[in-house]
Amino acid sequence: MAPGQPQQQPDMPAFPISALGMGAIQMHEQKTAFVEAGFTDAEAMQMICAMLGAGVQAHVIIGGLGDR
C-alpha cells in the first residue's frame, strides 16, 4: 500500500457504488435538472429515454455487441 493512503477494510469494496448504481444516480440528476429547467416530468423522462436509446443504438452500430 502506498504511504498516505487509508487502509481498506477487507469486506468493503474499493468504491461502494456499482457502475449501474452510478448510472441510475446520473439519470436521476439529469431528469431533475430538466424539470428544474422548466420541462414537465413527462418531457424530462422522454428526453432521458431518447438519450438512452441513442446511446444503445450508437453502441450497437459503432461498437457492436462483441464476437458471438
Strand and helix layout:
Elements: H1 19-36, H2 41-63
Helix pairs in contact: 1-2
Task: Outline the structure in words.
The chain is mostly helical and 68 residues long. It has a domain at 37-68. Helix content is 60%, strand content 0%. It has two helices and no strands. It has helices spanning 19-36, 41-63. The chain is flat. The termini are far apart. The model has no long low-confidence stretch (mean pLDDT 81).
Please outline what is shown here.
It contains 2 helices and no strands. The protein has helices at 19-36, 41-63.
Main beta sheet: none
Cα Rg = 18 Å
Pick out the low-confidence regions.
Answer: none
Indicate the percent of residues in helices. Answer: 55-70%
List keywords for this structure.
mainly alpha; flat; 68 residues
